[in-house]
Amino acid sequence: MRILIVGYGSMGREVEKILLERHHEIAGRVDPSGSGDFKIISPEVLEKCDGVIEFALADGVLRNIQAYAEAGVPAVIGTTGWEDQRGAAEKIIQAKQGALLWGNNFSIGANIFFALVSKAAALVNSIDEYDVMLNEYHHKRKKDSPSGTALTAAEKILANLDRKSVIQTETLHKAIEEHELHVGSVRGGAIPGIHSMTLDSEADTLEISHTARTRGGFALGSVRGIEWLSGRKGFFSVDDFMSEILPA
Asked: Which of 39, 91, 96, 142 is catalytic?
């Protein structure tokens, strides 16, 4: 496949490496900073590719999705921080009968983490002695907080733990409410990503954690994602994709 890379920063370069390892061709690199082959997406650029993998800034994602849909090019969107635009993106894809796969985290290991988080929350659903919380650490250049991965994990907890109904991401200057799930974020250094779920009682503590050592896991998942998307039509989440990789 000839793949266009949109966003040629650290993640874009990791995607390029994995694409070449899996014997794909690079149709081009788009980055407004000028570090790629093109600064903008155009119909001329899109007509020469079989698919797109995007890890870019959230403020341009809807405009880009419109361009992919109009060109009939399947796209994997690994960009985070555009949750409020997801409904509009789905309408665009449906109207144009396009193909799009989106996810806050394409790492297979992170998706195993989500499955474990879901199961752990379900296990303590009837055991009130355990409280639950989430924490995440990322590099100092990350622009969104909390991370999309943390929010996904939080949503998995809410879906399986009746006593938690609200995701609380703010710094608290009061006691937390019983129904609030606190998600803490720290930014600094060069950490690719650490996410931890803690279950705590007076008797003991359990922790489930995923640590990304490099960005390679995210890149591999996105490349496998565009391979999976090829030949399909529709608006898919990474859960749809991972359900065919990970056993139930």
From this structure: 142
